[in-house]
Amino acid sequence: MSPAETAPDRIAVAGIISPRSVAVIGASDDVGKFGGRVIHYLIKHGFGGRLLPINPNRATIRGLPAYAAVGLAPGPVDVAILAVPVAHLLRQVEDCAAAGVGACIIITGKLADAGAEGAALQDRILAVAQAAGMRLVGPNCLGICNFTDRALLSSSLGLDVDALKPGGIGMVSQSGALMGTLVSLGQRYGAGFSRCISVGNQADLELCDFLDYLIDDPATRVITLYVEGLRDPARFAPQLRRARAAGKPVLCVKAGRSAEGAQAARSHTASLAGSFAAFEALCRDAGAVLLEDPAAMVFAADALDRLPRLPRAGLGLAVIASSGGSTVTTADMLPAAGLRLARMSAATRATLGRYMPESHVHLPLDTGSFDEGTAEGGLEACIRAFMADPDIGAIVVPMTTQPAMAPRARLLPPLAREGDRPLLYVMTAGEVGNDARQAMRDADFPFLDRVADALAVLRALEAEAAGRDRASLPPPARPAGAGPAPALPTGALTEAEAKRLAAAYGIPVTREVLAVDAESAVTAAGTIGYPVVLKGVSRAVVHKSDLGLVKLRLADAAAVRAAFAEIAAALPEREGVLVQEMARGEAELILGARWEPGFGPLVLIGFGGVLVEVLADVQLASAPLRPADAESMLRRLKLWPVLAGVRGRPALDVAAAVDALVRLSWLAADLGPRLVEMDLNPILLRAAGEGAIAVDARATLAEGLA
């Protein structure tokens, strides 16, 4: 039995975040030191519990009695914050364990983050804590900022302000410095945080423990995460779904976007579906919003905290300003951001027509074209009309330098609160716009300084709405004829075996026969019908065409005999030659599946063929899928217009591609970790109504397949 299983009862995460008593080990009057800043911030921002400075060299610190050791301080101690040199850390943790401290927040670094010696010390510290039933946050962290209860258990310089505004944004970050930076940035724009936790090395408590807490925390309405790596990925997706069910959006920035885990194994899927791609798919499928920019994450979280949510995904935008230049340039930026202008209803157009010439009633809307200039009454009427328009999901107001900027800004918060759509106010002017910015702070209303930031927020709001819409759909349903899997060997399958597996799930595959000599190949070709394809079969060969083992468009028996001889010469150790119908299509797709440890079964679709890695135009999702999920993946492909029909080309059979992907997703879900990886590449997609067919396949199965 492990020390953790035999240890005394541990303090709950809630008791660590909202402690009644805090000891600061390494406390100092010097705010230039970690321990000095911790106690300074606790006092400055009004911590209401018992505060116990620990320093053997001082009788008092900040006017409070100081104690030589934590065991000499009056107990009980819920949380001890350790800001001591690494050489003294183990002894201080042992003292905390002996004194019955509930949890240690270890700011000290240079443990597992600094090599083998530090990792060994971290393991010893963890063992001491587990034996005593004491929890650890960190090490190498900047602690916990509980703004709601004014328990600032952190040395972050982001707390070095006169006042901190509480709000509904919770945060868990694997970077303490980034956490402080984002808190400071958010406060500049009037955003408010509930609890922010820096987890550091995660020796004991980890990101998922605090995510679990924030989901249940009544003070937290939106959750933000900065993730470098998950200690237990299997916990993560269920937590994201639980947050979605609780109505709490989760926004996430993931470091290490390169596909470090995607070394090409036997399949294209392995090289294209790396660990970041798997993380991205997990977040999207579980309803979380993945962003690239931490600042945009905070801006979007603030919008979700203080503004109404988008009614649903796919709606358009209304851009309104008194500057034609700002409205047009904003509208020009929408397509690259994946956003669109709304199509105004007749009622909206009629309202706008009361204030401007008919020729100017369009989006983006320049209020400078009002008959009487940018009058307040006209501005209010237009925004109210936008709020009621069924195709308008959000309103963007980029304000340029103009008279009465602050009074004009003050009009917007009441109007926005009347409606049920987000209004994003962008003060694009420099210092001369500070009065307008302050008007927004006074009204407790979000604002931004750059249109690009507003569009990043809108993309996040759209993703949040899409996740909400997806969560309302019924669960995936198995298509008729999907499974069960046939009995197959483990390890690398031949093309014919991989196709048997695909066909068992109703995925169309080419007609083919395995031939052992030239004459049996000729007989098979006559049965299948010319023209045919010949392929050399070997479990050891991944890319057959690179070795000259694929012969296309063989029109007669002589061509088949010649092709067989060439394959036999190139591949003396073979398991036969596959004689296959010569299928045709209008586009080549790849469908793939794999098991990703910690993330589960994943499927992939994209543009395939021999250039699949070069194109890298693929989408990934967790399995199994609904047809709507599969179609959404196709529509996100950069080359989607090719499938929809472009420049005189016919529209292709998207429904057949959707059906094949859904069936593959059930194959992946059923086989679970037994399906190491699988490629169907290419699948030839034909014109609408004519179907799709897999012409090549490979797969690797692990032990355990019945």
TrEMBL record:
SMART domains, A to Z: CoA_binding
The protein's name in its UniProt record: Acetate--CoA ligase family protein
Stored InterPro entries: ATP-grasp, ATP_grasp_subdomain_1, CoA-bd, NAD(P)-bd_dom_sf, Succ_CoA_lig_flav_dom, Succinyl-CoA_synth-like
Record domain ATP-grasp: where: 499-706
UniProtKB keywords: ATP-binding, Ligase, Nucleotide-binding, Tricarboxylic acid cycle
Record PANTHER family: BLL6376 PROTEIN, COA BINDING DOMAIN CONTAINING PROTEIN
Claim: Ligase is one of the keywords in the record: yes
A GO molecular-function descriptor: ligase activity
Organism: Paeniroseomonas aquatica
Gene3D superfamilies registered for this protein in UniProt: ATP-grasp fold, A domain, ATP-grasp fold, B domain, NAD(P)-binding Rossmann-like Domain, Succinyl-CoA synthetase domains
Region (Disordered): 468-487
